[in-house]
Amino acid sequence: MPAMRWTGEMSQITRRSFLKVSTQALLAASGMLGLGALLRYLGYQASPPPITQLDLGPASAYPPGSRTLLPDVPALLVHTEVGFSAISLVCTHLGCTVEPTPQGFACPCHGSEFDPGGLPRRGPAEKPLPSLQVEQDAEGRLILHVV
After folding, report:
1. Where are the domains of the chain?
2. Which CATH superfamily is 53-145 part of?
3. Across the chain, where does the E strand assignment appear?
4. Whose CA, among 5, 56, 63, 96, lies 20 to 30 Å from 134?
């Protein structure tokens, strides 16, 4: 009996031809899925690199004796008679953002405490808060180096 024969009524299909068509359909579907995955892989958009410098605006906006919270970084900009400095507000224990307190800084996650200069007063953090570099450009604007 032939694989498929049109008799004008219902066509007859053999088991062999059914398995052949099913196998070809599954292979085609697998190929399409693989091609879709390959196109997604080739079209991947990498995330932009993290910001390493931040323009804080004119230095005149920060009067001497000021302590300005920079929540986007997170950091604290300090202006003393000596000049500008910045302290990172990322806890050295597990990376939580510390909060300013009258005695310095406190980590809300695990209870570490730091003095106003960022030195640890109570653990679990053992390292001080990192200092960040602040420079003033020729136009009088402050540039914070986050790295």
Report:
1. 4-42, 53-145
2. Rieske [2Fe-2S] iron-sulphur domain (2.102.10.10)
3. 4-5, 12-13, 53-58, 67-70, 75-79, 84-88, 99-101, 104-106, 113-114, 120-122, 131-136, 141-145
4. 96
